[in-house]
Amino acid sequence: MLKGNKVILRKKRWEDVTKDYRWNTSETLTRLDASEPIPLSFSEYATVYKDQLDNPDSKGQRFAIDTLEGKHIGNCAYYNLDWMRREAEIGIMLGESDQWDQGCGTEAVSILTDYLFSKIRLTRVYLHTLEWNSRAQRCFTKCGFMPQGLRRRRGYNFIHMDLDRVTWERLTSQDDQSKDEQELPSQV
Predict the structure, then answer these.
(1) Are 77 and 60 in contact (CB under 8 A)?
(2) How far apart are alpha carbons 131 and 62 in whole angstroms?
(3) I want to staple 96 with a disulfide (CB 3.0 to 4.6 A). Which of 2, 49, 73, 116 is the partner?
(4) Rounded Cα–Cα distance for residues 137 and 150 (Å)
(5) Closest by Cα among 108, 149, 103 to 1
């Protein structure tokens, strides 16, 4: 479990299946990922879901995003892990729209990238976001990701963004310094 000030990232579990199905069949949410709602019944989806829980991907990991109160509000993941290059791709989806623009997504991305750089010891993390998705781009930019160009996939334009270890270390060091300055008592 990875805890922040607003959200917790935890391993996916069976109890998430209902919300994940709802989110993956939502036209609004799947549009944000340049995909289509899944064409499976709940029963079919549940079978696939259980198999994914029982047989995790060796090149990535999925996390649930919960509020501190334990409400499941979305998911994030790293995937396409390349051990030789020490890099992985990330993705995030906040399924509960009442949590949008509250800083939850930004904190989840920040927690995930901190985990990937500090625990997995990657040297680069990257992502692709739809060219028109300005909310996602703001989130990723706040976390230190920089646009690296456009990619065209499946008929959609994506902005390729990445964050390297050197930049992450500099940003983490600045964050630690500003926290220390906020905690210093004022001199009278």
Answers:
(1) yes
(2) 24
(3) 73
(4) 13
(5) 108
Residue 173 banded pLDDT, cuts 50, 70, 90 = confident
176: pLDDT confidence band, cut at 50, 70 and 90?
low
Give residue 155's Cα distance to chain centre: 23
Write out the H or E segment, with its range, that includes residue 50: helix 42-54
**pLDDT tens for residues 36-46?**
999 999 999 99
pTM attached to this predicted model: 0.87
Look at residue 33 in the predicted model and tell me its pLDDT: 86
Q: List Cα–Cα distances, 71 to 74, 104, 130, 131, 135, in angstroms.
A: 9, 12, 27, 30, 22
CB 141 within 8 A of CB 39: no
Beta-sheet strand order (sheet of 72-82):
2-3, 7-11, 61-67, 72-82, 87-94, 124-130, 156-164, 146-153
